[in-house]
Specification:
The protein is an alpha+beta fold. The chain has helices spanning 20-36, 75-82, 119-131, 136-140, and strands at residues 39-46, 49-56, 58-59, 65-71, 85-91, 105-115, 144-158, 162-166. The protein has one domain (20-165): Electron Transport, Fmn-binding Protein, Chain A (Pnp Oxidase, Chain A), CATH 2.30.110. Strand 3 (58-59) and strand 4 (65-71) form a beta hairpin.
């Protein structure tokens, strides 16, 4: 079995909520942050080198997955085809907060899967286009690929150093 963070292993835990209500509060904070931001930094890797790219994204209701599109003639596309392990970083720095203690960030790790045209592609492309109507022709272009990230875990950071971990439900 491959892990999302090989050095950490599958049992790595940090600041795990101790009750269902704490877990629910954490999920709501993550959801609010993801809903408030339309763009994220996608981290990929290749030949031992990390890369970061800005992407427009949309997330499933249960936070188990996200989608984005990319041209097939890019380094980003080639890296995703070579290695499916990715991270998506979303934060609210653009909110104009001058105080670092009010900034929140989420790093969501997971696996990227290129979607083939069909019912699933239709569902995810509509989700992305609904959130980013200006990307309609880009998403539907034959020179673009649509990817779904199946999330494995989220790291939520607030107050600059308070880190919580949450694992979303596994996709069907």
């Amino acid at each position: 079995m491959r892990y999302d963070e090989p050095a950490l292993g599958p049992d790595f835990q940090i600041d795990v909520p101790t009750s269902e209500s704490e877990d629910s509060t954490l999920v709501e904070r993550i959801k609010r942050l993801l809903d408030s931001q339309k763009y994220a930094v996608l981290a990929t890797q290749g030949a031992g080198q990390p890369y970061a790219s800005l992407v427009a994204f949309a997330v499933s209701e249960d936070l188990s997955a996200a989608t984005f599109a990319t041209p097939i003639t890019t380094r980003k596309y080639n890296l995703l085809v070579e290695c499916d392990q990715v991270a998506l970083f979303i934060d609210n720095r653009s909110g104009g907060e001058d105080d670092m203690m009010h900034i929140q960030a989420v790093t969501a790790t997971g696996r990227a899967v290129e979607l083939e045209h069909g019912p699933e592609w239709d569902e995810w492309s509509e989700r992305l286009i609904d959130r980013h109507p200006h990307l309609d022709s880009f998403v539907r272009s034959p020179t673009s690929a649509l990817f779904r990230i199946d999330f494995i875990r989220f790291f939520h950071v607030m107050r600059f150093q308070e880190v919580h971990q949450w694992r979303p439900p596994k996709r069907g």
